[in-house]
Amino acid sequence: MSGGVDFKVVDVPSMLAVKSTISDGCGNWIDDPDWNREAAETQYVLAEVLAENDLIASGQQVRRGPNLVIRWSELTEVGQAFVRAESEKWMRSVDVTGMPETDKRTRLDRRWARFSKNLNRTEAQ
């Protein structure tokens, strides 16, 4: 990144800090720990796909934990292009309560496969 604002692409601490509540059915609002777990899980999936496809320039090793953060400036040029093109659409597609992690992963892997195939086509021309 040159001269722009850096930001967090993966931000598990922020996801865990969100206060999420649900109704208990009796008019009371109680903490919803599932929301935080699922939001963090989505962040882990993104981080792992970025790492497994060598899209993190810093060579940062991705380990699941409450402090996992990956910044825009830590991504390769291809990583930035992938995040720019696909991450928001993917996150919207998996923003469903109770979606299994395997489904989230499958959807992101498909997006990466399409993106990298198109990237390879472009580079070959």
What does this 3D model show about the protein?
- This protein is mainly alpha-helical and 125 residues long.
- The protein contains four helices and four strands.
- It has one domain.
- Helices cover 54% and strands 10% of the residues.
- The mean pLDDT is 91.
- Principal-axes geometry comes out as globular
- Helix-strand pattern: EHEEHEHH
What portion of the residues fall into strands of 2 or more residues? 5-15%
**Largest sheet, described in full?**
2 strands, antiparallel
* Count of domains: 1
User: N- to C-terminal separation?
Assistant: 25 Å
Number of helices, counting only DSSP H or I runs of 4 residues or more? 4
Number of strands: 4
